[in-house]
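Folding follows sequence. Below is one example:
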Amino acid sequence: MLTKEDLEDFLKAIEKVEIGEGDLTTEVVVPYPRFGAGRVISKNKGFFAGEKIIETLVRSSGERINLTWHIKDGKQIKENDTVFSFEGKISDVLARRRIIEYVLGRASAIATHTRRIVGKLERVGKKLVSPSKVVPGYEVIDNYAFTIGGGIVRSEGLKDSIYITPEHVEYGGGIEQVVDCVLKEVGITRKEIKIEVEVVSFLDFQRVNELDIDVIHISSNATREDILKIFTEGNPKKKPVLHLRSINDWDHEFAPFFFVYLCVENIFTEVVPLEFKVKIEEGAL
């Protein structure tokens, strides 16, 4: 769940890099007392995400900027739409211009891509869940945008589950050994901790399918042939989660198979931000 504290921490980290101790150019060009008005416009079609981000960013400036929203989270945008207008201390806006434009662009791109995938999956009775591949530092806004687009965030962090990857298996000497070690370690807390295992091949799946685990993830590195074999010959005891590198890897033959949840791994890692533009209107208030 997105919290005010999470957003504040994220934005403080970005401001530290982008603004640091101050924006000398803005301080010279725009005198401190000057107030004015402006708006942020979209330059692409898509779905908007970023309302809470901007509200939190404005609060961090000491509420010297007043916002009027014209487009809310989850609503469609098109070229030259005014997303929100503002009035207040112009230097506060200009110092954060690149943050505003990039964060809105990234969040809206993720929401747009997510919405399109969700629509495609709904037609075949599947649901989109958050990918395991993330961009460190951006999880807060990426998950927020993902939910705006209609995706389901499975969990945030690893505090309530144990996720065993092929790398863990290789290091631990085999899947049976690793799972046995995990079960011994969690002990009486087993019912409170979800054990999830990622498999790459049909043979891996057969072995894991017999173990005391909660969720099997079919890796995005699995071949189409292995995926088909898992569902046609593997007799899954619980519904697996299917991972794909991109939605382009979706095959219509997957639709009737025994699973509900799908992960598309490049949603967060291959983002092409939508374009937004901060425009300062002429005249001072």
